[in-house]
Amino acid sequence: MRQPVLYISILLTALLSACSESFTDPRDGQSYDIVQIGSRTWMAENLNYEIEGSACPDGDKRNCSKYGRLYTWDMARTVCPEGWHLPDSADFEQLISAAGGTEVAGNALKSTSGWFKKGNGSDDFGFNALPAGYRLAGNNATDGKFDGIGGYAHFWSASETPDGLAYYLLLDFSTKAAKISAFGKDEARSVRCVK
Predict the structure, then answer these.
(1) Cα separation of 109 and 71, whole Å?
(2) Contacts of 151 (CB under 8 A, 6+ apart)
(3) Fewer CB near the terminus (10 Å): N or C of the chain?
(4) DSSP codes, the chain
(5) Higher-confidence position of 161 and 14
(6) Average pLDDT, the chain
(7) How do 146-147 and 134-135 pair as beta strands?
């Protein structure tokens, strides 16, 4: 008889940790759902604060309201509202661990719709990761080819590699896994602020 009690306890803990609240950015009045996962509070939406050089996914202004904006690494380091910060690799490692580990965290963090080829997740924690894709580096901060919308979520990290790249959290339509990878700082990717 102890197993049903244990199951109910685990279920209640998961539900309470996924309870969503909201935060209003005083800079532009936009409201973001937030969620507690592990010991950290995360924005449950991609940041959509407009700064010079940031871009809407696929270059379409209509996509900003759904997917947020894409930022180069230099932009990403300064764009979170006061009291929030760009996560570092340790923040992402803790998030992956809280979401069940590398092999399943992608599924637990991805939204339940919007991913192509049956790549939707279970969104167990209310993180609601959407596949905004990215913009490749161009000749300057405002050009470059867009790619990956519907298939990939890339969230910048504040951490750098020894060879001058920057880490980011990668969620992919084709796998339940989540991983931390690194790429050039001039590419534009999504931002999830944390505190």
Answers:
(1) 21
(2) 115, 116, 117, 119, 131, 133, 172, 173, 174
(3) N
(4) -HHHHHHHHHHHHHHHHT-EEEEE-TTT--EEEEEEETTEEEESS------TT-B-GGG-GGGHHHH--BB-HHHHHHHSPTT-B---HHHHHHHHHHTT-HHHHHHHHB-SSS-STT-----TTS--B----EE---SSTT---EE-TTTEEEEEEEEE-TTS-EEEEEEETT-S-EEEEEE-TTSBBB---B-
(5) 161
(6) 91
(7) antiparallel
Please report where in the chains the tokens 């279920």 appear, as a residue.
Answer: 11
Block residue for tokens 């050089």: 53
pLDDT for residue 125: 97
d(CA 25, CA 47): 10
CA distances for 127 relative to 43, 51, 75, 103, 184, angstroms: 8, 24, 22, 17, 25
| d(C-alpha 179, C-alpha 150), whole Å | 18
pLDDT (tens digit per residue) in 49-104: 999 999 999 999 999 999 999 999 999 999 999 999 999 999 999 999 999 999 99
Is pLDDT larger for residue 143 or for residue 12?
Answer: 143
